Amino acid sequence: MWLRYEQLHADPDACFRKTLHFLGSDINESRFRRAVHMSSFEKLNKMEEQEKRKNPFGVVFSGTEKTTREGFRFMNKGVTFQDLTHIDAQLDAAFDEKFSDLLEELHYK
After folding, report:
1. What is the pLDDT of residues 8-64, one digit of tens each?
2. How far apart are CA 66 and CA 43, in angstroms?
3. Residue 42 to residue 12: CA distance in whole angstroms
4. Is this structure's pTM higher than 0.70?
5. How buried is residue 18: exposed, middle or buried, by Cβ count under 10 Å (0-12/13-18/19+)?
6. 99 close to 105: Cβ distance less than 8 angstroms
7. Are 9 and 75 within 8 A, CB to CB?
């Protein structure tokens, strides 16, 4: 089963249902609705902000003192097809080399 971030971003309900179906899990509708709601970008972003205020170097959205001070965040921007030029060139090249076939299959190249 493949899910792309863009699909999840566009229709989280359908993607979660597809995942649960793939896993063979029954869907409890009220729990499903709550899970989709609580895992929205807005909710997770707010959770990260709250944790960073309480403990800038916490466990859930951890980071180093330097990355926290520089404003790096786990939740990023919550947008699709964003500019990734901030990624280290060596890391980007290693990722492309390791996953080039998959990236092509998923039409990211």
Report:
1. 888 999 999 999 999 999 999 999 999 999 988 889 888 888 887 787 776 666 666
2. 25
3. 13
4. no
5. middle
6. no
7. no
Which 3 state secondary structure label does DSSP give 55?
A: coil
- Sequence-distant (6+) residues with CB within 8 A of 36 are 12, 13, 16
Q: Where are the domains of the chain?
A: 5-105
Quote the tokens at residue 57.
Answer: 């170097």
**Phi, psi (degrees; rounded to nearest 5) at 84:** -110, 25
Mean pLDDT of 62-89: 70
Answer yes or no: are the C-beta atoms of 75 and 60 closer than 8 Å.
Answer: no
- Any idea what DSSP says for residue 39? T
Query: Token pair 């403990």 is at which residue?
Result: 55
Q: Residue 12's closest CA among 48, 31, 39?
A: 39
CA distance linking residue 40 with residue 53, whole number of Å: 20
Average pLDDT of the residues in 82-99: 79
